[in-house]
Amino acid sequence: MKIGIVGAGNIGGAIARGLLQSKAVAPGNLYVTDICPALLQPFSALGVSASTQNADAARASDVVIVAVKPWILPEVLHKLRPVLPPQALVVSVAAGVTLERIRAELPGFPVFRATPNTAIAAGQSMTFIASDGTSAAQEEVVRALFAGLGKVLFIPEHQMAAATALSSCGIAYAMRYISANMRAGVELGLAPDAAKSIMLQTLQGAVSLLAQSGEHPEKEIDKVTTPKGLTIKGINQLDHGGFTSAIINAVKASV
User: Could you confirm whether domain 163-253 is CATH 1.20.1250.20?
Assistant: First the structure.
């Protein structure tokens, strides 16, 4: 299967690297285009077909992933339409552009809208996908591609904004939580690098516990909040400071 990626910026480049690292596609079957030649050079060095002409990727590919800025997506799709193979699957990763708008430029083509987050660069994205005019077999093709870049969830398009607030915006909220803990650790006498290492392992442990047990997070909290213990004092201080409400309001504000 041949994959084309139109746009080799942050997200498009990360997708291309992830597909190569996961061996979901061989370099000779990957086509990457961008108007900036400097972004293409690293891919050329890996044996990927790279070009400044978007049509080169479109006409040669079974799946075309369009990773351009939202405001130029309609124009790019309009120009790609005449050169797309009739069986091509088109995946847009442009934030906020609806399937209806994509379909308006590509009538008759199976179209997908995918929203990864920045953890795609580490192969740990949470990618949401909505589709229109697609079959189960076509959906499985797209799922398999993004599964090499992290976890994948097909959702109705009307849930995309909420899912994005939890995941894409949630990356920033998680980073802020880590940063705050590091600052507290430094104030208590830890070196910054040590505080960071402690927090990374702590969060990885928390995630692993929930994934393994399947429990609600509050049940795991109960296991470490002993009577008159230190953790319950900290939990209560978080609640007094509006921590839970702040998280809920931040997610809602991001929709």
Answer: no
Residue-range domain boundaries for the chain? 3-155, 163-253
pLDDT tens profile 154-182? 999 999 999 999 999 999 999 999 999 99
Task: Please state the rounded mean pLDDT for residues 59-67.
Answer: 96
Contact partners, residue 147, CB within 8 Å, separation at least 6: none
The answer for 191, left when phi > 0, alpha when psi is -120 to 50, beta otherwise, is beta
Residue 118's pLDDT band (cuts 50, 70, 90)? confident
The CATH code for residues 3-155 is: 3.40.50.720
Q: 111 - beta bridge partners?
A: 90, 132
Distance CA 24, CA 145 (A): 6
CB atoms near residue 9 (< 10 Å): 13
